Structures are given as C-alpha cells and as structure tokens.
Amino acid sequence: MTFRTLTRPLAGGAAMATAIAALGVPAAPAATALPVESHRPSTTAPVVIGHRGASGYRPEHTLASYRLAIRLGADYVEPDLVSTKDGVLVARHENEISGTTDVAQHPEFADRRTTKTIDGRPVTGWFTEDFTLAELKTLRAVERLPLVRPDNTRYDGMFEVPTLDEVLALVRQEERRTGRRIGVYPETKHPSYFDGLGLSLEEPLVAALRRHGLDRAGAGVFIQSFETANLRDLAQVTRVPLVQLVDASGAPYDLARAGDPRTYRDLTTPAGLAWIATYADGVGAHKDLVLPRDAVTGATGEPSDLVPDAHDAGLLVHVWTLRDENQFMATNFRRGADPNAKGDGYAEATAFLDAGVDGIFSDHPDTTVMALEDWLAAADRSA
Ligand code: G3P
Ligand code: CA
C-alpha cells in the first residue's frame, strides 16, 4: 500500500530533494522502493489531509467525518486531541465542547458549566477534562457551523465523540477495505494547559501509537502542535515526524509563558526555520503565510519565501486550512457575494500546489484531491 505516487520528481525539485534528503529518504521516484523506516510518505507528491475529517460535510471530529474524508481520497485524517478526566485522549478541536456537542442539552451536566483560563484567555462552557470517558460517551456531536453548513446539521445527535484509539482502529479498518495507505495526523491541543492538570497529552499519544504499531518513522503519522516545548520533548521519545504549527499572528503559548519573545512570524524566518529543524520535520503553516493577501484587495499575489526557505531548512510545508466557502477564501477565489456559498476551492488548492507546498489541510478533501490529481497529471505531461 502506498500514498499517491508520482512518475517523476516534482518541478522545483532541488529544494524538495534537499528537504527529502534531510529526512533520510531517497528523493524520487521509486515509491515502492523506499525503506519502511522513512520519515516521509513513500512519494514526493503533496498530500491531502482531511481537516477534522471531512468537516465540510459532517460534524467535525466524528468517525463519520474521518471515514468520509478517506472515501473522498484524503491521504491523512486529522484528529485534534484533548484529554478526558480519566486521561483518555479524545478527538475535539477544543477541550470546551459546547459548540461541537449537545452537552448543553444534558441537565445532568448543567452544574459542570464553568469558566476557566485556557492559554491565558477566559473560556466559559463545559470541558472534556471534567468528564470521564463514560460520561463523554453519553454526548453526541453537533455541527460547529450550522449557519455556514446547514446541511451538516442533519447529522446532529448521531455520532459519539471518538477516542484516539477508535480513530486509529477506523483508519486501519479503512486501509484494509480500500487497499490504500491512510495516514493519521494528530494534533496536541493546549499541551501546557493539560500538563498543568496532570493530564499530559504526549504520553498517552505515544502509547496509543505504540499499541497500534505506529510509533515509528514511515508509519504514515505526523504529530503537530502550536506549542514548541512538547514537540521538542516528543522528538526525544518518538520517531514519528513532527510538525510545528505556525499561525499568521501571535506566538506559541509555551514560549510566551516562558518569557521568550519569539512570535510565529519569527519562527518563519530562516533562523526560526533552522531552529524548528532541530526538532521537527515540517511546518504546518497558516495559508496566508504562504500566499499573503493584499491588504487592500484581499487577493493573493506572489508566494512568500516561506516554502523555499523551509525546504532549504529541510522542512516540509503543509498549509491550513482550505475550505470551499467564500468567507474562508482570499477574494480572488470567491464566487459571488454570499459568504456561505462555495467559491473556487479547486483554484485555491491549485495555487497552493503551484506555490510548492507538500500538503494541504482541507475541510473539503474531494475538491483538494481533484485539484491535486489534475495538478500531478499536468506535471507529468510537462515532464
Ligand atoms: O492543525 C492544522 C490546523 O488544523 C490548525 O488549526 O485550529 O483547525 O486546529 P486548527
Ligand atoms: Ca488541527
């Protein structure tokens, strides 16, 4: 089983070859000849990551959402991870769950509504760390964006909050069913916060990967984090490739808390990227960092230097998040004035592929996969 393959190295391959060589993998083509113990999927083709599953079509972070992403052709599915009170990793974008579950409809949990400080900000609602897994399993997922994605609300109340173990089992099951290689791309959410509660995310994450035979390079797993310290710790205990997430503004919470003045922007300079390369294998970049938007028109223009600079540092670049609705796009990809209508996600994905990214997080994996397959075919034709 392999990921999507190329018949030739990609254009601009010098930087890519450097990046791949730095990961200890032959550059290309020979997808099936790559060693099992590689840090890189067995191809140089960019990958499509089903963001929270196929969250454009199903309530996010449900098994139904991940399953659909796989069926739509995603190479990876992305569970964001938080902890329950009894230390079980579950897939939720935040530990506060009022926006993505029906917890507010459960009178037995009404007294658990509270306000906490998460990464320096007050947050009010219900929190996974106040629920055992058994309690959490009595809740049902709901659509986060009901006004943007009203069709998805028909699935409200149907799906449980899945554990990481359940996600990994689903992926294995879908690999067997499809004969395709399907990766998993877990993100640790608020790692310093959970560490402070005595509910560290990293140990159960590595333990789960080990249980499923995935704690090794070449297993089709990336671990991502917006913080840096937990990735630096993870680099000591796992061979799974690590991805430093970088936002378009702000700073990693762990650095800010430690008095380190570096921002995400600082981490995208050549010096910042060189530092990231000491512990990680890639950057997961806000898409505006790769294709900046004009301050007046809101349209994308020429790519920034981030992709070539990251490749020079030996880092992959995966961008987040492509979503088909107009409101999430730069103005040049929008179609019509309705913010909830679909824009040209195909053109947007193609623009990022042209900019040289190695992977795309997408809420609508079918759109991104179609763009990628056409883009790869065009690359082959021009070879
Ligand atoms: O992990 C990539 C992307 O998902 C980061 O943003 O907030 O959707 O987890 P978020
Ligand atoms: Ca994420």
User: Main beta sheet, described?
Assistant: 11 strands, mixed
Tell me what portion of residues adopts beta-strand conformation: 5-15%
Number of strands: 13
Strand order of the largest sheet: 4-3-8-9-10-11-12-13-1-2-7
Walkthrough of the structure:
The protein is of the alpha/beta class and about 375 residues long. It has one domain: TIM Barrel (Alpha-Beta Barrel), CATH 3.20.20. About 30% of the residues lie in helices and about 15% in strands. Strand 1 (about 45-50), helix 2 (about 65-70) and strand 2 (about 75-80) form a beta-alpha-beta unit. The longest helix is centred in the C-terminal third of the chain and has 17 residues, at about 365-380. The model is unreliable at about 5-45 (pLDDT under 50). The protein binds SN-glycerol-3-phosphate (G3P) and calcium ion (CA). SN-glycerol-3-phosphate binds next to strand 12.
How would you briefly describe this protein structure?
This protein is α/β, with parallel strands linked by helices. It has helices at 13-22, 63-71, 133-136, 164-178, 191-196, 202-211, 229-237, 253-257, 264-267, 270-276, 287-290, 306-312, 345-354, 365-381, and strands at residues 47-51, 76-78, 80-83, 89-91, 114-118, 121-125, 183-184, 187-188, 223-225, 242-246, 282-286, 316-322, 359-362.
Show the helix and strand layout.
Layout: H1 13-22, E1 47-51, H2 63-71, E2 76-78, E3 80-83, E4 89-91, E5 114-118, E6 121-125, H3 133-136, H4 164-178, E7 183-184, E8 187-188, H5 191-196, H6 202-211, E9 223-225, H7 229-237, E10 242-246, H8 253-257, H9 264-267, H10 270-276, E11 282-286, H11 287-290, H12 306-312, E12 316-322, H13 345-354, E13 359-362, H14 365-381
Parallel strand pairs: 1-2, 1-13, 2-7, 3-8, 8-9, 9-10, 10-11, 11-12, 12-13
Antiparallel strand pairs: 3-4, 5-6
Helix pairs in contact: 1-12, 2-4, 13-14
The chain binds SN-glycerol-3-phosphate and calcium ion.
Residues 51, 80, 93, 187, 224, 245, 284, 320-321, 361 line the site of SN-glycerol-3-phosphate.
